[in-house]
Structures are given as structure tokens and as C-alpha cells.
Amino acid sequence: MHLSRFFLPVLRETPKEAEIVSHQLMLRSGMIRQASAGIYSWLPMGFRVLKKIEQIVREEQDRAGAIEMMMPTIQSADLWRESKRYDAYGPEMLRFEDRHGREMLYGPTNEELITTIFRDGVRSYRDLPRNLYHIQWKFRDEVRPRFGVMRGREFLMKDAYSFDVSADAARRSYNKMFVAYLRTFARMGLKSIPMAADTGPIGGDLSHEFIILADTGESHVYCHADLLQIRTPPADIDFEGDLDTLIKQWTGPYAATDEKHDPVRFAKEVPADKQVSARGIEVGHIFFFGTKYSEPMGARVQGADGSMITVQMGSYGVGVSRLAGAIIEASHDTAGIVWPVPVAPFEVGLVNLKAGDKETDKACSDLYGKLERAGVSVLYDDTEERAGAKFATMDLIGLPFQLIVGPKGLKSGEIEVKERKSGERMSLASDAAVKRLVELLSARRVLS
Fold it and tell me: Strand locations in 72-187, DSSP E?
């Protein structure tokens, strides 16, 4: 993509309304613009990041055996009355009537709708287990939306729903999602810590939040430092095998959000030098709630002995749009964003230091073509901005690598490669620079 043809409205000054780093940098780097309180347009740069995050989420859901579908954003109030949640959910739910006077709502979650779909489509225990998911926009009318996409009113979410014939089978489904979440966040360059959590309006008696440690986090969290050192489950993990040992490794050491924190137990179980007390950002939340929805909504299957069995359910959410902000909170410096390769909007920023110069233009065009043919996504700054402004923009938007081409370097047969994260610079011949970039990117596209 040529920057001269791209839409990238960067801001040099930090907007006053932006309180935290991710909100500031998403506005300054031209990723988002506010449409109204807590509602944002995703501009081309932000949209590319959002799609990268969404795809990683999708791949790990598919790997764990979940099946993708799509449900509508608008739901009937009758469904929520059937589950007894319509009046209990609270003012965060946006309720309205259509032109025929039917009561509707903008879905904040989908337990009722998916239970109806399952109830009407599955009859036998032989059709279980099943896990259905979608990636869809949600709306919750937050009383005080803030922190940009971290606590907006409209947000993109992956929500999955499992259906099982017994509580034991349902916990196996829960464990699969637990492992899938660990892998999902690790692939984005994030270290997530699963923590025992309240179930809230979703319900149930088993729940974990996946927390990213960050100073701007809304939750206060407590955990054993050893959790920060556990390795992420590998890509070839057998989701159909016994996951209990792995789950115990992650849930054995103390870890809890403020709502579940037990100071006495924390002091007793965790040595003083291993106690971590910090702020955290929730990026995923999983629940096992048994028959909370299936019982009142009549979701039953016929068992092996002919009897009717009420199915056991769980739900599993990932804040896809929130993750864009969380990644920035975890990966930035004073100059701007530092994107991990798997979620970067472009992998390389190609900087032409003298646009309009015949030799420099030719060299850049040649490099652009070679990188594109090698499968590298490139943002080519072919504008006539001064060099300092170009460097500032590249650092602000945080692409993993910069390829800097100018007349002076070309005379000595070299171009400069800069790694955004480390700041390391290498002067290489053109072909060597392309080869090196391809090698580095190939090694970093999959972080887990």
C-alpha cells in the first residue's frame, strides 16, 4: 500500500479526552475516531489490526473444535423473558420497540438466542458435544464509557457456547476453551493469566477471567509470580486428550480478581517474594453455568436410555476490539505503538527519504515489489513529507520493521533496516535487506 493513496489521519498532539495510552495512541495513529460516546469508527489502519486479531481468535476456536456461525445483533425481548433475564439484566441493555410495537433489544450477549437455536435443531445425545461461536458486534449502554475501545458501548466480541450431555463432559468443553484462550493471547504477544472470577449476570458456579497485567487495568488482581513463567500450550496439543494436568498447572497457583481475592489465603499460600499485586485488563472470560438457560428454555436431548436430558452449557467470550487496546497498553514506548508481528497492520514501513528523486524512487519501487512478492505486507511512504515527519509517523504507527532508503545510502550500495521494538539498525545491500526481513518476519509471524 502506498501511503500517498492510503487514509491515515495521524495527530501530532494528544487529544484531551484520551485518558490512557491505548486511547491516545489509537487516536493519534489514525486507527479510530469517535462517532459518539463509547462508539468508534475503525479507520483503515485500525480495521487491519482488528481483522488480524479476529483471525487469530478464529483459528484457535476452530483448532479447539468450535464451529463458526453468525447471529443477529437485534434480539426479541421474549427470548430473554423466557430465561428470566430480561428484567434482571439492568440498564446496560438497550431496549426498544420496532414499528409493530414488538419489544426488541440490541444484544449484549447471546445465551438465550443460541439456546433456542440448539433446542430447535438437536434431538439426540449422539449430536453432542457441540460448541458454536460467532464474532459479532455487541452493545452495552455503559453508564460512563471511557478509555476508548477498552470500555466502549459498542464492541466486537467472540462468543462461543458449548452444549454437553453431562456436567463432566461440559467441564471437558470448558477446559478446551481454557487452553484455546491461553494460545490465542500468546499468539498476539500477550501473557494472559487465568483468574478465578465472579460469574456476574451470565450466571453459573465456575468462571475464569483472562487478565493482561497493565498499569491502566480496571481490575486489581493478585497472583503467584510463577504463573508468569508457565509456557503456553503448544500448537499441536491434543484437544481431545486429557487436559486436566495442564489446567491444574494454570489453576493450582493462587490467582484471583479483586472480587474473589482472599487476603488470608494469599498470604498463606504465596511466599512474600512471589506475591504479585497489580492492575489488569480483562481480555477474555469463560463460564460454566450448567442448566441455567437450558432448563427454563427447554433445551433437552434424548439420552441413550430414552430419557430426556437437560443439556449442560458454558459460554466463552473474547473482547476482540478491546484486544487492540490491550495490546497497545502492553506494547508501546514514548514514540508510539510497538506492534507484535502477528497483529501489525503492515509488517514493514518502506520510507523513501527523497520522493521524486529518480534513483531513490526506482530503488523503493524495486524493494516494494520484491517484498510484496515475498508475501510481506508493506506500507510505502512515497509522500513528500520531510524525513523527520516520516520517521515520527513510522514510530507512531508502530510497524515491526522500517526499511529506510535515501540517496546517500544508495551511493554506498546500502539501505537501512530498523527494528521498531529494539531500535536496532542494520545497513545492508538491497537483496540482503529483503532476505533478512523475510527471515525475521517468517520467524515472528507465529508467536506460539
Answer: 74-76, 94-97, 103-106, 130-139, 154-164
Q: Are 392 and 402 in contact (CB under 8 A)?
A: no
Residue 347's CB is within 10 A of a number of other CB atoms, namely 23
Distance of CA 326 to the CA centre of its chain: 8
Q: What is the rounded end-to-end Cα distance, in angstroms, of the chain?
A: 28
Contacts of residue 431, Cβ cutoff 8 Å, sequence gap at least 6? 370
Q: How far apart are CA 401 and CA 175, in angstroms?
A: 37
Cα–Cα dist 36/31, whole Å: 16
Strand partners, 130: 163
CA-nearest of 402, 397, 401, 351 to 29 is 397
Residues in the chain: 448
pLDDT digits (tens, 9 = 90+) for 319-345: 999 999 999 999 999 999 999 999 999
Closest CA to 344 of 188, 235, 214, 167: 188
Whether 165 contacts 129, CB under 8 Å: yes
pLDDT tens string 11-26: 999 998 888 999 999 9
Residue 445's CB is within 10 A of a number of other CB atoms, namely 14
- 320-330 and 44-63 helices cross at what angle (nearest 10)? 110
Coil, strand, or helix at residue 165?
coil
| Other Cβ atoms within 10 Å of 444 Cβ, number | 17
pTM (2 d.p.): 0.94
Find out whether 400 and 420 touch, Cβ atoms under 8 Å: yes
DSSP character at residue 124:
B
Asked if residues 384 and 356 have their Cβ atoms less than 8 Å apart, the reply is yes
* 3-state SS class at 362: helix
Question: Phi and psi at residue 103, in whole multiples of 5°?
Answer: -80, 125
Q: What is the DSSP letter of 2?
A: B
